[in-house]
Amino acid sequence: MWEMASPRVAFGKALVDIGRENSDLVVLGADLSSSTKTSYFEKEFPERFFNCGIAEANMMGVASGLAASGKVVVASTFAVFATGRCYDQIRQSIAYPRLNVKIVASHAGITVGGDGASHQTAEDIALMKVLPNMRVVVPADAIEAKKATRAIIEADGPFYMRMGRSDVPTITKEEDPFEIGKATIMRDGSDVALIGTGIMVSQALKAAEMLKLEGIDAMVVNMSTLKPLDEDTTIKAAKRTGAIVTAEEHSVIFGLGNSVAMTLGEKYPVPVRRVGIPDTFGESGEWNELMVKYGLTPENIVSSAKEIMKQK
Amino acid sequence: MLGPDEIRELSLKANAVRRHIIEMVYAAGSGHPGGSLSATDIIVALYFKLMNYDPENPKWEDRDRFVLSKGHAAPALYATLAELGVFPVEELLTLRKVGSRLQGHPDMRKLPGIEASTGSLGQGLSIANGMALAAKLDRKLYNVYVMLGDGEIEEGQVWEAAMFASHYKLDNLIAFLDRNRLQIDGETEQVMSIEPIADKWKAFGWEVREINGHDFKEIVDAVDWAKEVKGKPVMIVAHTVKGKGVSFMEGSVHFHGKPPNDEEYRIALQDIDAERERIFGGGP
After folding, report:
1. How high is the ipTM of this complex?
2. Closest CB from B117, B133, B160 relative to A66
């Protein structure tokens, strides 16, 4: 099976590498740098790291002012605070003026675990993808987190990149290409397409193996950019299979499933089933137990696939 | 020091800016005359006397920056930039019209000379922090000026930003508080007590001075002093009159976000023209 590795650690290390090449890179933290792993950058480049304290709103404004003065800024904290607490600051001071700020959040979704609903967010992708000028990237594993960190820093303009707290299976390879706005077909198939993002891509791959045992040939797509959505690959998957299951560690209301369903509804209607966090707050627990309780499992993807195939 | 000729020149500029504000807001049929008029003298003093600024090159990287955190006073900033020649004066009357570069609140991506997109209150000081920090990182000598409204400091983010500025010793940051005592729902002290203002900023680690925000000599002296302060940000609490320069708007809460009607427009221009005559005549 796959090795486990931490996307946030990969992000933290990538920042150090990029910081060596790019002296305009400035990193901001909000008393969580040891959790978001911006602490690596702080250790290496103390003159270009600024702890803003437990004051996320100001951090977003500081990021705006630095970017308006020519800096590339990474502002990092937990996803629930980055997007929920600072929505207006991101909207007014970063997205609207289209400034070169990368909001990189860890501890997204319910895999936060024991901290419970106050620290879990299933709404962050929704909040960020609705903002004009904002692009949203969700790496599937640590290797992709490293590549995505570089890609969003090299591309001009605002980004939101989301990662979880837990280690996730390493399902991509160093040599795989990574491009913002491009989905990857991880496995071809003709009966049903499983489109996942983040930690749910590995769950979709497991589901595809389980479906294979039942004679069902499932395609698996890694949708690592949620906005702009790779519509071409989405439509291609719909044309090839005629049935789609989306899988995300995010509310089903306005996340990946919503983007895929809207795109296909307008351009190539096929039955779609969304696997994700239902319209509810989370709770404390071990992250892998919460995955099971909230239906973020290969088994749930498998049953959704079989149901949706009946609607073809 | 500011000589009498310079004071006269600044007074004339401020008078022209006030005329533009009334004309713009009247033509737009909406906007915020009260807080624009209270902020006018400070913004004019900054751009015409104090800031290191090249109107022909508003992106010059060594320029002093001005962030209008109370973005609803945009007409005062637009009129000042137009008078400086950053964009044509004729464009002022497009304020708030479809397709205009002069948005109801400043948009840095649309109009040259705008340093920050503001409007949602409480955010400009944080942005100014970032700019001041960038100057330190780049070892540049420019100053960052920012103007906050007095009602605006009810926003919690302002105090996060206040802590940040003193923590990082941003002595290239000079803030003005436009203390006109009024916000939309009434007097600040009735809506939400913000006093003692000076003590609050001092407690947050700032150097503070209080001035009359309509006295050019006091404005210029305060900034000259602020530039000498080392290791701390500076807050200049500028006592002002909302609606300054238009008789029926002065001290009135009703013209926070309302344009004059036809009759009021006529009177407002009369008031402003009379002030212009007074400046020319050197009278009291």
Report:
1. 0.97
2. B133
